[in-house]
Amino acid sequence: MTPPGRSARRNIEVTKAHRGAHVECVAVREVLNLVGDKWSVLVVGTLGNGPLRFGEIKRSIEGISQRMLTLTLRGLERDGLLTRTVTPTIPPRVDYELTRLGLTLLDPVRALAAWAARHRTAIQTARDRFDRQAAGKKLT
To answer: 63: phi > 0 → left, psi -120 to 50 → alpha, else beta; which?
Structure first.
């Protein structure tokens, strides 16, 4: 068997160099999948001012269904970003609160919300322009 040629060695070196970057990319993607959907971001932002009950969270987030809020809260709890505390009263009281880890997510979430508010008009203008161009192409 002949030793690998220059290009084969280069390919092996590049592959090894990118292996670490690939693992990091997968890790980032996994975390963003956990907290990057709009409902999770909105729930984290809503809980940033302190613990709330389910109904209070639901009223604070326009358009979220009861089922979606339940799934989102469970996912955030599973990921260690919030805690669910049940107080044994009649009826039971359930409060949701960000954990220490969840609190570390507040600054990035608030920064993203501020960016979205600042650029909302520009994004809508770009969408309108794109849609007009796409409609024009369909006609021709």
So the answer is: left
- Please give the pLDDT value at position 50: 96
The identity of residue 72, as a single letter, is: T
Give per-residue pLDDT as tens, 92-125. 999 999 999 999 999 998 898 889 889 999 999 9
Separation of alpha carbons 135 and 81, rounded Å: 43
CA distance linking residue 134 with residue 2, whole number of Å: 55
- Domain 36-139, what architecture? Orthogonal Bundle (1.10)
Strand residue runs (E) in 88-135? 93-98
Provide the residue type at 14 as one letter: V
Dihedral sign computed on CA atoms, order 65, 49, 36, 29: negative
First to last CA, the chain: 59
Domain ranges of the chain: 1-35, 36-139
